[in-house]
Amino acid sequence: LRAGDAKAVRAMLADDVLIVEGNGVERSAEEYASHHMLADMKFMAAVKVEALEHQTKVLGKVAYSVSRSQLTGDYKGKPVDVISKETLVLVDTGAGWKIVHVHWSH
């Protein structure tokens, strides 16, 4: 997201990815790409990200990543200073790993 490469982000997501953020849920990569992926990319490019902790585990053809990061900076004229939590669930499709679930919270 930080690099602003929408094509690369889309390629990492399974078509039926489930993305949960705040009070919203997006139920496909297409829905995410057409709604707020570009806003997420702009936000992530505008803030400094400091990794606080990151854990991953591979369980056969399923893997997960759980991280906490400090996000600081300025976005749309407002200061940003939050702890962001991210959970990713990935599945090995045989043709590579795809993200099937994302959960972001602050």
Automatic annotation (TrEMBL):
**DUF4440 domain segment(s):** 2-99
Report keywords, A-Z. Isomerase
Q: Which Gene3D superfamilies match?
A: 3.10.450.50
One matching Pfam family is DUF4440
Q: Which GO terms describe its molecular function?
A: isomerase activity
Protein's recorded name = Ketosteroid isomerase homolog
Q: What species is this protein from?
A: Rheinheimera pacifica
Taxonomic placement: Bacteria, Pseudomonadati, Pseudomonadota, Gammaproteobacteria, Chromatiales
